[in-house]
Amino acid sequence: MHTPPDAAATLYSPDEVPAELTAQPSLIVSDITDRTGRALDELLPPAEPALWDEAPRFVHFPWRNALVKIPGPRTFRRLRLDRNRHKLTAAQQSAAGDLRIGIVGLSVGHAISLTLALEGLAGELRLADFDELELTNMNRIPATLMDIHDNKAVIAARRISEIDPYLTTAVYSDGITTENIDEFLDGLDLVVEECDSFDVKVLVREKCRLRGIPVLMETSDGGTLDVERFDLEPDRPLFHGLAGDLRIEDLVGLDRASLTPLAVRVLEPMKVTAPMAASAIELGHTVTAWPQLGGDVLLGGATVAAAVRRLVQGKPLRSGRVRFDRDTWLDGLEDPIAPALPDGGRQTAAAPEPLPPHEQTPLEAMSDRELVLHAARRAPSAGNQQPWQITADEDAVTITLDRTRTSTLDVEHRASAVAVGAALYNARIAATARGVLDDIEIVDDAETLAGRARLKGLDTGSRSPEAEAELSALLARGTRRGVGDGSPPSDDDLARLHDAATSDRTRLLALTDRADIDRYASIISRSDRARFLTPELHGEMFEELTDDPATAEGIDVASLDLPPAMAGMFDVLRRADVMALLDEWGGGTALGADAGSRVASSSAVLVLVQRGTSAGDYLRGGIVAEQLWVAAERLGYDVHPMTPTFLYAGDDETARGLSSNHGDELAALRREMLDTWPLDADEAPTIVLRLSRADSPSVVSRRLPTGS
Question: What are the start and end residues of every segment in region (Disordered) (predicted)?
């Protein structure tokens, strides 16, 4: 070989720098350790202490007549590759640093070797090319005029050394021959073959197949990446058998005209681009070599690096071909805002959707029964699932639990039972306002859970002004999710809230101390993160959301009052593959940050607690929950239900079962909440409401027609 003395940088410890080197008056000396020290101080997570104690090095670049003081190898690698994190794990980056890769041909190979070096995907690169740089090469090789007539492998080695002098490079400036190929391949993990000589292509593959070394090739035509896994398939034919059972002996003595058809067969003539196919005919006539574009070559560096990353990540990389054809991609350009730009591209505001017929009748025009039905339907429910069937006859309005409208977090239909109770409360108030309430009853047996408002004297009862005021408030009730000002509630307000929430079966736990609110903010933040990162819960969460203003169920995305940064990432947040990566990295803290910050801005957090855990107990709790919600709004507070993921899990094992990958965390959060705010043995939480003063608009959710 091998490496000419002016192709490799030399590393020295501080006390080993030759005196004759530093004595040269023309030597350019520089020191980057001051800046890198500051960068090390700013790393997140903080750098391990050992890096601060690592001795620096001096690196000499003879072709630049320069001596540079740099951090030691571990510190250098930690800093240089810091921005790779979350694209590659620390373990994967470490494995990549052990790879020994040979690159044959340093035209396309220059871009590949450069990209591998940039991404830290090798610890040693062996570069083989006999050719010198010519001006005609500089449409695709990122060299300079000062490199003209230097060996292509030497040019690449110099550039890599200037990026990472700790990365070992070896230069075979004679290219690959039958005499040196065994030495070149010794100990390699992977070969990237990018040479022009067809006989060398065959020789490299024959030897790699014998040694079980995988071979990658990037043709740069149509972005074609070729993979031959000789490590997994020791009998695989060269070039996938596209040119027959080739052997190097068969190519001896063949001229270029004879080799070109073989090369075209390998490229698959029906799949190469038209310019490349035409150029194959014109070789030796109107063109002297295969055409290549700089952009295609640079793309090749990226695709080979992507393939190497898959190897270190343990992802599948089978033998075969894939095409990254930029022209095909560009033919498929789509305008992301086209659907929102009608009338020749003029952006117009969407006309508000009309209310569905069942919501258009004025209250005063409704009969007593119609008003009771309407009020019942206006009750809140988790995810606006409306888990009920509401029916009416001459004597009653009945709200029956619909067990088909449920979700994973609706453990044993407890959240749904709370919603049925809220609907029953609304029905009772509406009937009382019109003076037609006889009584309410609850049906709780093995088959049915229902609340029934019995009516009397329809259209003949005397009205209740107090109940009418309550009715107006509950019909105007909505979820207000805005960030609050944190101002505490008055003692009088707290007394009124306790009165609204206290019955023989319920009590109110009001968190008003800032430490308690912050503690709950931390719990809800971690709970939300687990919900995002659990595939099933993440899927259900986004199924609940809708951006269709005409839909009669689900939560309108516009009502979430998302901060701009989160709203801009909404389509990313809904992607399951993104959540899986965050989970793999142990990240995703930001996923719960919005919920945590909203709770932290609260005036109070109200935890309604009930006695008993039967379906009927949750229904009764729901009656009080709606009464509490309306009372809070009448006091001028914005109300936002913020129940943690595990709220309706009656024990740690049930909480654990809510998530396939974060069950232990949910169980621990449940235990933390109960340890912080203990409940009696016969008690369970009904709902958690966040109260704030934020002046956020009230969003009244759409409702399905009665009986749906």
Answer: 335-358, 476-495
